[in-house]
Amino acid sequence: MHFARTPPPTSSLPASFSSTTNMPSMESKQVLEVHSTLIELESACSNLRTLLQKSTDLETNLTNMDTRFDVLEETLTNTSRTIAPLQSLAIANKALDTRINRAVSPAFNLLESFKLAESLQEKLLKISSKLPMKKPISKRLKYLIKYVECVDQLNDAIDSISRDCEPATQKLQEVVEFLSRTKATDHYRTRRLKETLVTLKALYETEVDAMRYEGLLDEALLSLQDEYESILQQLKHKNIGDQLQADEGTEVEEISDLGSELEIDVLKRIAETLARNDCLDICIDIFVKVRYTRAAKALMRLNPEYLRNYTPEEIDEMEWESLETAITLWIQHFELAVKTVFVSEKKLCNQVLADLMDGTIWAECFIKIADKIMAVFFRFGEGVTRSSREPQKLFKLLDMFVSLEKLKSDFTNVFEGILSKPESHESLLKDAILNVMEALERNIDSKKLRYKDKVLLQIFSMNTYWYIYMRIRNTELAKLIGEQVLKKNFKTVAEESAYLYQRQAWRPIVRLIEDESEHPNNETTGAVVRGKMEAFMKAFNEYLQRHRSSYNIPDADLREQIRESTVNFVVPAYDRFYNAHLSVLQARSSSFLPPDSIEELLGQIFGLTNPNVTSKYTTRHRSFKDRTAAGENAPSAQGSTNVIKTFRRMNSDD
Predict the structure, then answer these.
(1) Rounded to an integer, what distance in angstroms lies between the CA atom of residue 365 and that of residue 417?
(2) Which structural domain, as residue segments, surrounds residue 554?
(3) Quick one: CA dihedral 539, 540, 543, 545, positive or negative?
């Protein structure tokens, strides 16, 4: 420790020392050093006294501070005991605050949704009031898009209310239960909160459903349904009759869209909005009803008055010329329906409804529209087949079948990818054709009952079925319904009718000249022979006249086959009888014709006009006479009857 030096006072110096000023200098220095040391010691002593005093004061202060700390500690202990209940209450209040916040947040969201729904309702009313005044149509459609968007937003807001209301009431229920259990607030506030909870539950159970099903949203959906129907009605088929006036080979113009891009967009948005609001069935019903009506009206512009008469009785009352014209128009109109109307309606269905139900709805709607239109056309076709008219009508009806066959590729294009099974479009066309052809068969069978002449009945049946078979075979229509089905239903029936024709027309005549014994020359008399020959010639001439007047076979190939079969059936039997009784016949009369003349007459009634043509039988007939002259046995009558049955096998391979 350093002490400050202070100069010694002058009065403290000894008198003797001051009087020694004249002492030598060495002694003076020693005196000064001693004096300086004394001064330093005095200063150090003073500082020590000061330090000791301060230490004493510090000790006193520390003692006082310790006393104060003890008092403070006692105070803090007492304060802690006082604050402890308040701390528990604070923790409870914090837990209550957390629960209240959890309950209030959904409630706040719910209030915001209510406010949004209210503002959207006001906006919807404003747009709705201006919508009827919007012109031209493009502006109105754009404004209608805003209307649809507002409806979607209102629906989302109501969905949000419906979604948030139940969680909000659940959270409030939890708070009420917590307050009731913990007594965290007074009874008055708890009761008010319970009343609020009851009110909110009632609001959820009644008002939310009312907002969705009885409020402005429901009115807006009804308005959208009307707009949807109105726009669909405005989409018309244009220039529907141009295809009928176009010459064959003229390139057909590409089918245009029924609606503009804006119209399609509006229809699509409305359909999606209706579907989201549980109105999909209504949307489909409106679409199918309106578009079928529009498609039907487009076809009605072609004036298909014949479609009004579709019952067999009504068709029977039509003149043949009118019916023939009606069938021609039917073919043209049905082709137009498939190639233009169906194509346009299919495209519209896809454009408007493709996004609904994963793309399954639009195809169903198109099938319903097309099915109704086809039903009208096929109803007329079936009426024609069930009516009872002259045979020429059946040939005209066959043209209807051929037209259906030509439309096969168009049916494929229209219905491809729509029906549930592959190639269902072919099944649809095949079923339609088979139904009409079955009706045609029933019609033919009913006409056969009108014939009292059994031979004429078989000729009619043979001609009709053979004509149908020859007209359809080797065509796409035959491939569609199946060659085997075609042969079974038409060719086989024609062959059976031809066989029955020969049995009923020529079998009775041949029996007139059949001998009952093996040696007719020895056991029969001339009168019996001439009687049989006269009966044969009378019946033969009668059938010749009938064939010339009414027994007509138009098809040349069929007529030639019938001629050959008839010649091979009749002439050999006549030849045997004629040659067996030649002496008796020549002795009494020369009016009996030789076999060659019989064959020539048969050739004439079946249209054989070239007399130089040598028939197969003529060759066989002459060789038979040669064999008879040589002593060979003549062929039996039973052998000739087998030739008749060969007709059913003559054309088994086409």
Answers:
(1) 14
(2) 506-650
(3) negative
